[in-house]
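Dear colleague,

Thank you for sharing your sequence with our group. We've completed the structure prediction you requested, and as agreed, I am returning the results in plain text so they can be pasted directly into your records. Please verify that the sequence below matches your submission; if there's any discrepancy, let me know and we will rerun it promptly.
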Amino acid sequence: PRGILGGDEQTGLCGLNEGQHIYIPVETSDVVQLHFTLSGTGTVPNSLVQSLSSQTNYKWNLKITQVECGGDNEAMNFLEAPNGCTQYFQDNFGTISSFNLDGLSPFSPSQDYWICVGQENDDPRNACGVELRAQTFGLPVDTTPGQEDGAIIPDPANPYKTVPECQLGDRLVNTRTKAQCCVAPNSASLGVVAREDSIPGSLRYHYCGERLGESNQIVTNPRPYVLNVRSPKWPKDWQVPEWAVGFQIQYKINTGSC
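Please find the predicted structure tokens below.
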């Protein structure tokens, strides 16, 4: 079976995930078991929460809700997520983050899950689209010789180094393969049909690298509003670069006249 985040391996959650939530689909006869590692062997590598920076024991405080589907209970109907959604955000604005985002830990392999965004139930206005603005963004691209995600070009940040062009985050097309960026075998990606308002012809389906597009801000119009987080099972010798720590994205549903 697939892992909890949809990848090909049976991987669990690790690191710091305060404020995160997941939906686990179950059938009537299913038994759900949670496994916890009770103690750590090293400090928590966290640059954002000073109070946890020297902790060695793992801690958790989970709220678990069994959601009744398809009934007439209004509260349960509000909690029910659309089929296939691992995460479901129902406010008109908020923050979406990758798991174990601490500013230091590398983005994890073997992920393939869907994030869904829905409008507040009591908002009568039309939803015209969702703005996504990245506060943090770093998803690794394929650097394997012969299958690099893009032509090899000088690194704008360091003229003595070279990088695959798709690593810059603002490139639409992998000129080496004539395909969109972020679809090389070992590239991670955020999948969403979106564009940059100020750039004509910027419609994309995958985002990766060091930026969420040229401006770190994109708009998605087609409904339903869903994002696909994907990373492959990397080879054992794969080195995730230091900048590839995941993402933290502020979202806002645009309402009014469409």
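Summary note from our side: The mean pLDDT is 87.

Kind regards,
the structure core
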